[in-house]
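Internal ticket - ligand job 356, iron/sulfur cluster:
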Amino acid sequence: MGSYVNLLKKAVYNQHLSREEIIRLLSAAGEEEIRMLYAAADEVTRVHLGNEVHLRGIIEFSNHCKRNCLYCGIRRGNKKLTRYRMEPDEIVNTALYAFKLGYPTVVLQSGEDDWYSMEIMCWIVKNIKKTANLAITLSLGEKSSQEYHRLKQAGADRYLMRFETSNQKLYGQLHPGVSYENRMQCLFTLRELGYELGTGFLVGLPGQTIADLAGDILLLQKLDADMAGIGPFIAHPDTPLKGCGSGNLDMVLKVLSIVRLLMPQTNIPATTAVGTVDNIGRQRALKAGANVIMPNVTPQKYRELYQLYPGKICIDERPEHCRICVEGLIMSAGKIRGSGFGSSPKWKERAAVIQP
Ligand code: SF4
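stdout (structure tokens):
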């Protein structure tokens, strides 16, 4: 127990641990060790980021995808899925509706869908920006550096793209025809272009080890992520990984807490997937280091068609109902709703230096 406490202190003071030390923290078994880990993460969140929980309204605007990631419900190979695309003006109007509902940020997310050309995506971003004071996060997958640059020039503020696992062999098995090196290159390019960078990984992937999870945490630090999305793997029945065991919530929360100790100024969402594996999963995450929630503002008719994993919560709710529900969730975790865009403090410092 004493060595566990010392390791927690080292994480808080140094914000650096070796792979072996992270493995030791992840191996917390007894209730007392786990309680201390979550409490330390909650305290670090409060000291560095306050008691606020920031909201990002997510719009899942297309479930077409040219990729075939083995775990994903909207992968190209899933022929059972009805596909949809929102029209560009429908996306803009949905973003403006999110603004009216009081969301300061929207996340525009889709599969890797080339139907939306650069002209179309830039038109969407510009039209949202010219009408509403919204921060825009894009989550469109891998693009060329020129394309990332054009989207930034159009007004995009943030980009979200998980690396999913730092184990290159596992990455190759899960992502046929996709290069790990290119993924990394994309992430470093996004940072260089001045985006607020969101990335992250899945916990509980088939074949993933605890040492891999320690490597994932170290990679988040190397990328100096401004936002870290950590969610459980949930096996989808219409994918090659159907029947595999899903990620364990306790392990997700341990990972999340350790990331909070090592990266105190990084925004960490209590993901919808965490709320899917446990109906109070998001409240638990908010008490273990998370400080962001991403309510769904996708029009209701499309929601059930965007299930990257099965059983996703909130697909029957209307956006205005989600808004009310999320307020209650934040209060029940003893937190308050955040104000402003909720950018990570370290990104704000970086932006102030790069763009005086
Ligand atoms: S994880 Fe992303 S890139 Fe992979 S199939 Fe799903 S939507 Fe497409």
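Auto-summary: The radius of gyration is 19 Å. The longest strand covers residues 196-203.
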